[in-house]
Amino acid sequence: MKTFTRALARGGTGAGVAVLAGTVVLAAACASGGGGPAMTAAEAEALLGEYAGRWVLDESGSSPQISAPQPPRETATVVTSSQDVDRVQREFEAEQRAAAVRYNTLVVLRRRPSTLELRVDGVRLVYDPSPGRRISVPVDGGSIAEPGGGEAVRTRIFLDGPGLGIEHMVSSEGQVHAVLEIVNGRLRMTRTMRVFGETVAPLVLWYDREQPGS
Q1: Which phi-psi region, left, alpha or beta, contains residue 89 (left: φ > 0; alpha: ψ -120 to 50)?
Q2: Model-wide pTM > 0.90
C-alpha cells in the first residue's frame, strides 16, 4: 500500500463572480496586422493617444473586488494499492498544476490599480499593471515577460473592435484579458479571466481622467 498527500485547490473567484461554463475567446488581432510593415511612432500615437494620461479609479461605479484566492495548501491523504501508484501520482501532479494555474491567474485578475497611467513611448505602451510596477509593452503584436518574482506572466497588446486590449498569459491554460475603451470621456476597463476553457463574468472598472493640477 502507498500513501499520497493530495493538494486540493482552494479559493474560488470570490463573492459576486460567477463561473460561466464553456469557452469565450476574445477577438485578438495584433495591432500591426501580423506580418505587415512595422508600426511607426506616429501611427502608435494615433492609435493610442486618446488613452494617454493619468486615470483615477471610480470605486463606487466599478465592480467590487473579488476575494483573495488562497494558495492550494489544503491536503488529503489517499491510500491506494501498489498497482495504482503511477495513476495516482499522475492525478496528484495534474491537480497540483491545475491549482497553481487557477491561483496565479486569479492573482492577475485581481489587479486593481487606484491610479492608472498610460503613455505612448515610441511604439510601446507604458502602463502600471499594479501599484509600484510599470511595464512597457510593444504595440506591434509582440509580447514581453513581466519582471518580478513568482509565475512568469507574458503580456501583449491587441485590438478588440474599437477597444484596446491587454492580454496577460499566465500559462497556456490561464489568461486574463483587459479591454480598455473610452466612453463619454471616461476609461472603461473590462477584465475577463479564462482558465481551462472557463471564463468568469466580466469585471468592469471605471476610471476618470486626472486633470492637471488636481
Answers
A1: alpha
A2: no
Q: How far apart are CA 78 and CA 63, in angstroms?
A: 40
H-only helix segments in 65-209: 85-109
What is the sign, positive or negative, of the torsion defined by CA atoms of 78, 82, 87, 89?
positive
Give me the residue label for grid cell 474560488.
12
Q: Mind listing the domains of the chain with CATH numbers?
A: 18-66+113-209 (2.40.128.20)
Give the model confidence (pLDDT) of 24-78 as tens digits. Answer: 222 223 333 333 446 678 878 887 888 988 999 999 999 998 887 777 665 555 5
Cα 162 from chain centroid (whole Å)? 20
Cα of first residue to Cα of last residue in the chain, in angstroms, is 69
From the list 77, 86, 76, 81, the residue with the least C-alpha distance to 2 is: 81
Q: pLDDT value at position 55?
A: 93
Rounded distance between C-alpha atoms, residue 183 and residue 37, angstroms? 30
* Beta-carbon-side half-sphere exposure of residue 210 (alpha carbons within 13 Å): 14
Question: C-alpha grid cell for residue 183?
Answer: 466612453
Which residue type, as a one-letter code, is found at position 209? R
> How much helix, strand and coil, in percent to the nearest 5, is found in the chain?
20, 40, 40
Which grid coordinates belong to 39? Answer: 508600426
For 211, residues 6+ apart whose C-beta sits below 8 A from its C-beta are none
Helix (H, G, I), strand (E, B) or coil at 90: helix
